[in-house]
Design brief:
Low-confidence stretches: 207-213, 428-462
Radius of gyration: 25 Å
Strand order of the largest sheet: 12-13-14-15-16-21-20-19-18-17
Strand content: 25-35%
Structural class: alpha+beta
Largest sheet: 10 strands, antiparallel
Number of helices: 12
Number of domains: 3
Shape: globular
Mean pLDDT: 83
Helix content: 25-40%
């Protein structure tokens, strides 16, 4: 047995109340400064003397929190992991359409950890970004470390890598301007949605000394359909059934799923009520006869905007309009017909091997057609409609199988390209000033090393 006495330090690890993957560490005990120091060098950021938060750009916080918990336990520090965080740790999720298919799950985690180190170096001032450019589907940048070396960077969030290293800033800037010319813009690129969410998660969870703020004001604004608020799935389903008597619904015995069936039983839908934002909430399917095999299917994630769900339901309420398309193979004409609204709207059209893509000018919404999957239906979805930071980590996504009717796809792409919806912007009312001044303890120092993700990529590729 170890002769090392137990420390009077207790750590409680829990999920963050405002961030989907961040982890909160709450410290108690007279020796809490010891786990505070250890957590600070393991990716947790100081919030106050009793609280730290880990908010990463790769959504791998549960994995790294568990590693930190093991390290603290070996130091005779009591660590409690809440059931909610334990569930997140045990959740074996995968990245959709990961751009480095030769990497296994652990190698993917290594790549994203290298990107996290670059992000931490930037936000802590160890890496100063001089300029950035858009090239053409992601952000590239050039910067210098405080130790004197300079680098060019490629990608955003969990895919950012060091592209090239230079001895001086002058060499790096000259090469960057040669490569990107008029596209170069001074300073760093605007923060991504993922970076902004992480920054917000690191803000104080509570504000002692402040009075309760007034209720937040809700300001609805008109936005493109792909950027609208997520649908209230239960409300939409109930309204649809009320207005369409030829559809019937029933809930499963476990009460977590509702089935929606057309009276001819050839069009069916399933809604999972507690699906997560990136999990499949809706599955729609069509059959040639009530007892035949499924001809095509289409899925929507939990955060799919209300306009797209409404458009899909309205289209399916006229299901007989698509009977002639059931079982039709995918042809060039099918693809052209399904994406004509995007072409008419001037969306960027690119071909990258097996993938044909259409993206809006901002690059935050798009449609992808997988030519390989169209010929091998069992491999993956042929069509992906998405919006968000990237197709690999979308805010929402719609996936469709090869035989999904072109008229139905065209209806969805029309809504994607030209439709509008409502997004509710919350404008919080500022709280009143505290009665007496408050002081915030300074954050503990962070590690000063930096790494290049290129090494992991080269090592992982066969």
């Amino acid at each position: 047995m170890s002769d090392t006495p137990a420390l009077d330090a207790h750590v409680r690890l829990d999920t963050h109340p405002r961030h989907p993957s961040a982890v909160v560490a709450t410290l108690t005990g007279t020796d809490r400064h010891i786990p505070h120091a250890h957590l600070s060098v393991r990716g947790f950021d100081h919030v106050d003397e009793r609280t730290l938060v880990m908010a990463r750009i790769d959504h791998e916080e549960p994995y790294w929190a568990e590693r930190a918990a093991h390290d603290l336990t070996s130091l005779n520090i009591t660590v409690a992991v809440t059931p909610g965080l334990r569930e997140a740790i045990d959740d074996d999720w995968t990245w959709a359409n990961y751009p480095y298919p030769w990497c296994n799950r652990q190698e993917i985690r290594q790549v994203s950890d290298e990107a996290q180190k670059i992000y931490d170096d930037i936000r802590h001032g160890r890496l100063v970004i001089h300029a950035h450019a858009h090239d053409p589907h992601t952000i590239v940048a050039v910067g210098s470390y405080r130790d004197g070396s300079s680098v060019t960077l490629h990608g955003e969030n969990h895919l950012r890598t060091v592209e090239q290293t230079f001895e001086t800033a002058a060499e790096a800037l000259a090469d960057f301007h040669d490569q990107h010319g008029e596209a170069v813009r001074p300073g760093p690129a605007p923060s991504t949605d993922v970076e902004l969410q992480a920054e917000q998660a690191r803000s104080p969870l509570h504000s002692p000394g402040l009075t309760e703020p007034e209720p937040a004001e809700q300001h609805p604004e008109t936005v493109p359909a792909y950027a609208a608020d997520p649908a209230d799935h239960d409300t939409v389903l109930d309204a649809f059934v009320t207005g369409h008597r030829d559809w019937e619904k029933w809930r499963t015995w476990s009460d977590d799923t509702t089935h929606l069936v057309h009276e001819d039983q050839t069009l069916r839908a399933e809604l999972v009520h507690e699906a997560g934002p990136r999990e499949t909430a809706w599955t729609f399917a069509a059959y040639e006869t009530p007892v035949s095999d499924r001809m095509w299917h289409l899925t929507l994630t939990g955060t799919t905007p209300d306009p797209l769900l409404q458009t899909l339901l309205i289209s399916l309420s006229h299901g007989d309009a698509f009977d002639t398309a059931l079982g039709s193979p995918v042809t060039e004409r099918t693809v052209s017909s399904a994406t004509r609204p995007l072409t008419d709207a001037g969306w960027n059209h690119t071909v990258d091997g097996r993938w044909i893509r259409w993206e809006n000018a901002q690059g935050d919404a798009g449609v992808q057609f997988d030519a390989f999957a169209a010929q091998h239906p069992s491999t993956s979805a042929t069509w992906t409609l998405w919006a968000g930071p990237s197709i690999d980590r979308p805010t929402w996504a719609v996936h469709a199988s090869p035989y999904t009717p072109a008229p139905l796809l065209a209806t969805l792409t029309e809504n994607l390209a030209h439709g509008t919806g409502t997004r509710t912007r919350t404008k919080p009312t500022a709280p009143r000033a505290p009665a007496r001044p408050r002081t915030t303890p300074p954050g503990l120092p962070q590690p000063t090393t930096h790494h290049s993700a290129n090494r992991t990529l080269q090592r992982a590729k066969p």
